[in-house]
Amino acid sequence: MLKTKMKQLLTALTISTAMVSAPLATQAADKGASNVEAGKELAFSRSKGNCLACHMVPGGNLPGNIGPALIAMKLRYPDKQKLYDKIWGKPETQIPDSMMPPFGQNGILSDDEIAKIVDFMYTL
Predict the structure, then answer these.
(1) ∠ CA 27-30-34, rounded to 5°
(2) How many CB atoms lie within 10 A of CB 12?
(3) pTM score of the predicted model
(4) pLDDT digits (tens, 9 = 90+) for 4-60
(5) pLDDT of amino acid 95
(6) Structural domains in the chain?
């Protein structure tokens, strides 16, 4: 029951966040906007980030529910470097028995690609 209520809450929050966060990419500087778009493309790409396999992401189709919804990322990670380190796979950021691969450590994504994904996630 609690899981169902939590999923409903996260879905509602994701939908409302998607409507609010959409203009943020257009307000960014040209370079920032291009990084955000490139980060979104990488995050949604099945051959690269593939974030949608496990996470609900505003604007994504057919999201997974293994990991937490990727919403309010600035609030969850006020220090952008900590989010970068989490995606890269720094040992101190890893959660035991997590299904999330260490993308940088395993060479799945380059440092630049992770930085672009972080830029995108900061718009969520």
Answers:
(1) 100
(2) 10
(3) 0.71
(4) 666 665 565 555 554 444 454 444 455 667 999 999 999 999 999 899 999 999 999
(5) 87
(6) 2-121 (1.10.760.10)
